[in-house]
Amino acid sequence: MIDPKLIRTDPDALRRAQAARKESVELIDQLVAADEDRRAAIAAFEALRSEQKDLGKAVAKATPETRPALLTQAKELADKVKEADEFTKVAEERFTRLLMELPNPVYDDVPVGGEDDFVVKETIGTPRDFVAEGFAPRDHLELGELLGAIDMERGTKISGSRFYVLTGVGALLELALTHYAVSKAVEWGFNPMLVPALVKPSAMEGTGFLGQAAQDVYYLPADDQYLVGTSEVALAAYHSNEILDANSLPLRYMGYSPCFRREAGSYGKDTRGIFRVHWFDKVEMFVYCKPEDSQEEHQKLLACEKDFISSLGIPFEVLEVASGDLGLSAARKYDCYGWVPSQGKYREITSTSDCTQFQSRRLNIRARYADGVGPVATLNGTLCAMPRMIIMILENFQNRDGSVTVPPVLRPYLGGRETLTPLA
RNA sequence: GGAGGUGUCGCCUAGUUCGGUCUAUGGCGCCCGCCUGCUAAGCGGGUUGAGGACUCAAAUCCUCUCGUGGGUUCAAAUCCCACCACCUCCGCCA
Prior knowledge:
Elements: H1 4-9, H2 11-17, H3 25-61, H4 67-101, E1 119-124, H5 130-133, H6 140-147, E2 150-151, H7 152-159, E3 165-166, H8 169-187, E4 191-194, E5 198-199, H9 201-207, E6 218-220, E7 225-227, H10 232-237, E8 242-245, E9 251-260, E10 279-289, H11 294-312, E11 316-320, E12 332-340, E13 345-354, H12 358-362, E14 365-369, E15 372-375, E16 377-385, H13 386-396, E17 404-405, E18 419-420
Parallel strand pairs: 4-9, 8-14
Antiparallel strand pairs: 1-11, 2-3, 5-7, 6-7, 9-10, 10-16, 11-12, 12-13, 13-16, 14-15, 17-18
Helix pairs in contact: 3-4, 6-13, 8-13
The chain binds one RNA strand through helix 3 and helix 4.
């Protein structure tokens, strides 16, 4: 979210900042007008209220003779105050609503365009040449079934489409990945957090998931709560309505939680296997830092992701997402796409966003600096989304006989196991 | 889910009976100063927080803030209603 002060001091700067998102530029004009109304209403209210207080004191001190006249006067004033209060509320609500609709301004150098206009920044590792090896790679579901690792049919039986059950080595593989990811995060200085997957509307609203992404979110009307699509929501809301000690920044957290996504609007897309599912577990990184440090922190998060994926030995690409595909909250986003042999292409496995002050303003998170209270920035990044990482491991490290070689870094977390072998 | 209790400025606390000098008391802690080889103790002073106005800055001023939101009233920490959180007991339950 943009700085409300900027609305008054330099609306043109805002227009420039929003230029990459054409739809929101006109919002700014409304916002400027709404802000003027709001400020005028507040000033009027405060003046009346001040007057009322003085009059109230006079009433208290009044003699029986002077009292009735003062009371009449006070009653009239009270009506005016009530009216001004009402007016102020309406103006504030209108302003807040507009402000909430405005997407985060993107950085100047973010590639312009839509979903397909990303820029590949880097390619790391080389995909295996299965032709040279003389066999056609099986896809993750076939491998998962051979290994007794994935039970799609029963997942669907229990819960419906896009649900799965991880069985046997599949379950062990996820747990191993989880332990490995957690220990890496801790090693890098992230504070591990196990957070609720069920949150209040304010948490969802504050992180920006009730805007464009609202249709993708599970809502429980009976309790007025949402199922999170990522632990980012809880990690961001963790410090809501707090003033952090600037000396404690950056705060680096690692969250682990189940994630729930309705995947509305993706009917028929990636329906096979566990690539796109309604529920999965994820280890997530989250950072609170000074606004001027956010870009550097973003690079660090990306470096962590690259380190993690590389350490497993998965070939991948790093790409920067174009402005039109950033969502409400990100000012910049990098995705890592891992190689999927059965599809012959790279697919998304991680995503890291610099949300600058968008979330912290909505969640009212600030920090106390040497020169006063000021804003903070938030960032998030996937460390390990389990099903997708399982896909990467099964497919990239499969052997001719359907067995899968366990990446060496993962072996300590799998009881030293080197190979997953098909059931007899 | 049922019954009862609690929620005050970092922490503890007075104030709520009976609405108005509450512009919220006191202690702890913290900050500044004095005193003293050093430290501690002692003495004096300061200390809710946020938003805004003005200013180079300081000073000053205004609004909001006694869990949150409403209501009553000229006026609410104080009265009424709803909600939230915590505590105790009961019930249910992994």
